[in-house]
Amino acid sequence: MKKIFIYLFIGFMAFGCTDVLDKYPLDEITEDSYWKTSTDMELYLNQFYTKFRKLTAGWSLGVYESETNSDNMQPATPNSTLNGQRSVPASGGGWSWGDIRKINYFIENAENVTDGLEADIKHYKGEGRFFRAMFYFSKVSSFGAVPWYDKVLNIESEELYAPRIPRDQIVDKIIEDLDVAIDLMKEKSEVPEHRLHRGIALLLKARVCLFEGTWEKYHEGTEFGVQGSDGTKYLQLAVAATEELMQGPYGIYSTGDTENDYWKLFNRIDHSSTAEVMMWQECNPELGTGHGAQQYLNGMGGNQSGITKQLVDQYLCADGLPISLSPMYKGDSTLLQTVEGRDPRLTQSVWVPGQLQSDAGIYFQYPTIAESAAQNSTTGYMVRKGSTTDASQQQSGGTSDYAKTAGIVYRYAEALLIFAEAKAELGTLSQTDLDNSINLLRARAGMPALDLNVGFTDPNWEFPNLSPIINEIRRERRVELALEGFRLEDLRRWRAHDIFKGKRLKGARFIQGVSFPEIENLLGGVLVDDDRYIDRDKVTMPNGYGFVVNRDYLSPIPTNELTLNPNLVQNPGWE
């Protein structure tokens, strides 16, 4: 029997703050000696927990700057996807199948395990199906149609030359895997903290189905659509999955403090009792598993990024009306004026003068738009979401691992947003549905409930050709999930290039003598547009983002792969 070398890590490396302290004690194991017990299954699966989004182990805002690939955050240089600057790589580019091969190896060998509680064996088999679904969903999201591999291949396998299968067929197989996972996995109360459970499989299924359902609906009739399908069946599956989740043990974190609860959700150290957090990552500097994000989230450095005016303008006023209609809106000549009378989630996501930065007695005064390098804020709207005032977590140094704020991997709020959006897209949304989903999120922030009839027409709706309720549900999703890594995928599945194509991202307003008088003498190099909004790309990108509509919705397949497998066909526009 061939020997296999498997490095098995105990614990989690999600978010870059790892509980991993040890390695499986055997340097060499054989298939004959392994795949006997449920513990063998657990240890093998632990390596895949590294694949969740990382909070950070280095010098950045971590996941809270993940949306520099969208119109929610302004990076130091324009995003290559939005700007149409990508080219076909020779190799790499996300076309890697190592994880899928590893999980197929697990799925095959898991059938040999007999030693252990039956419930444990079933659960780990379910985890294997979950991970394969997760890895394949990433492939479909990037490339659309891909080959389907459900067994371990070697260099002689004919399947290495398999053609791409239509994207909806791949999604159906992903759903099959998730249905198996849902059937086999234990409930949250039955697994250790930080472990996958049945509810997370339901949430991933809902996420996949919403993505594919809206992709097929809004790309219908284009080179990226699915012939003969409008996505309805997937939207129905998304509703069913979220309805089941809504009967479970989850809830929205709220203490009644509408001015702070949203902010506090993201700076907690321990989520073991947070009903909203379905899975989280513990970070402990004493064990070498801390992170460095608080060095920038504390408002003292922007890491060459910043929240955009486009995102800030989406926050409603406290009366439930948009800034275009509300008498509560006072303008945006200063940061304080910008947030006055607005959705409390805005001041819990963006730093404004007077907010406590550190319990050492430091208060935020102005953004770091005059600073250089890593301290620079590109827009003046600096990220507060995820920050803590604990000075001990904000230290800078060579290790950059002092912070212990936990990382949220999956949270229940997403399920509520999926439920509302899917039902709205199907035309079956009721006021009761809204009250059981989006209005729970609004209530946490002290915002008025969303009415099914909406009750106003916003001249600045991002999707003027769609119904008012879909516009408002999409607004709510953007605000509630801001900076959590969802925005680019939303823009892609909605075919929403009109929002950013030919446009530039903007920042805070800079009116001389008004906006930032404390540092005005340092701001000579800050570019602004005719209305005095920070316009970082004014010179380098005068025509706005150059997204290529008939090409950039999917990634290119590397040229080497096309050569190795002549049955592969390049994605549209990349030929």
Any overview of this molecule?
By secondary structure, this protein is mainly alpha-helical. The protein has 17 helices and eight strands. It has helices spanning 38-45, 98-110, 118-143, 167-184, 198-218, 232-245, 261-265, 294-297, 309-312, 335-339, 344-347, 412-426, 431-435, 438-444, 468-480, 487-493, 559-564, and strands at residues 3-4, 29-30, 73-74, 277-281, 306-307, 356-358, 362-363, 407-411. The chain has a two-stranded antiparallel ribbon with strand order 1-2. The protein has a two-stranded antiparallel sheet with strand order 3-5. The protein has a two-stranded antiparallel sheet with strand order 4-8. Strand 6 and strand 7 form a beta hairpin. Helix 6 packs antiparallel against helix 12.
Mean pLDDT equals 92
Strand content: under 5%
How would a textbook summarize the main sheet? Answer: 2 strands, antiparallel
Spatial ordering of strands, largest sheet: 1-2
Describe the global form.
Answer: globular
The helix tally amounts to 17
Based on secondary structure, the structural category is mainly alpha
How many beta-strand segments? Answer: 8
Helix content: 25-40%
Spell the H/E element sequence. Answer: EEHEHHHHHHEHEHHHEEEHHHHHH
From the alpha-carbon coordinates, what is the Rg to the nearest angstrom?
Answer: 24 Å
Quaternary structure state of the chains depicted: single chain
pLDDT < 50 runs, ≥5 residues: 1-28
Query: Separation of termini?
Result: 44 Å
